[in-house]
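HUMAN: Forgive my ignorance: could you write out one protein's sequence and backbone structure tokens?

ASSISTANT:
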Amino acid sequence: MTAATQTGKQARRGLRLGTLEMNEIGLLVILALLYAVFGATTNGFLSANNQISILRDGASIAIAAWAVTLIIIAGEIDVSVGPMVAFTSVCLAFLLQWHAPALIAILAALLVGAAFGTLAGMLRAYAGMPSFVATLGLWSALRGLAFFTTNALPVTFPDNDLLDSLSDQWFGIPASAVVMLILFGIFTFVSRKTAYGRSIFAIGGNASAAELCGIPVARIRVLLFTTSGVMSALAGVLLTARLGSGNAGTASGLEFDVIAAVVIGGTSLSGGRGSMLGSLLGVFVITLIGNGLVLRGINPFFQEVVRGVIIVLAVLANILVSRFRERRRGAR
């Protein structure tokens, strides 16, 4: 390898890293602006209680977003997150109502999430069903099951020390936020430092080429959706601990917040590109906007308009960045 070739590769690597950092720096600037605007115009926004509330709300989105980030990097999509959270929450509440040991009930709820996630993954990997269709069917079935089994009523359960601790604060911050950060570290390591993580990026870049290289594409797709089911179930467990009941109507629209956060974080919907740090920053952009709008008393229906605009703008930005990169590669 000549010195010129090596220098060229290093320069291209630097450009890629610089682009990734610019995306994250841009999100940090947006977060700073949101804090400045809402802090100056909204009473109570900068209070300690509200910051704890932001962390707790952000954790509900982020825990599911870690798995969805990997799914989208692989070129797939999962829209079943919200109903999965609600249904596992209801399952956990029923088990606790029937006096099952809390740890057993939580593990059972996680297994329910894993089972439904695996079902969606198998439909995608082995039946050839588009992931959007498979998870949309799951979205409808799980939401219907949750309402059917509860008659649309909250499912209460006796006081439980383990769930109380999950709804409390650890080290001065919400327990769900601690779990979120631990999982962030795990998913970041897996996506960046393991062969499994590199395989996910390869599948998102070109699934056929990845399979020719010996990557077990079908198996990885199933595992991705299984992981998403477990993460959604874990979010359901933490939400149940926070609310003190299981509710079929909970987490409504969560899947859109998750996808919006991941896309805002720079993960390409066409696959092959994304990062956990970007998703983390995207989660807090979404959470801060929602929190600020609520504190300002903005009409809830208009909040949905804002969320939709954010999603469209994020996807548009992704498309423009992808086209720019393709033109730059072509110019070389």
Remarks:
- The first helix runs from residue 3 to 41.
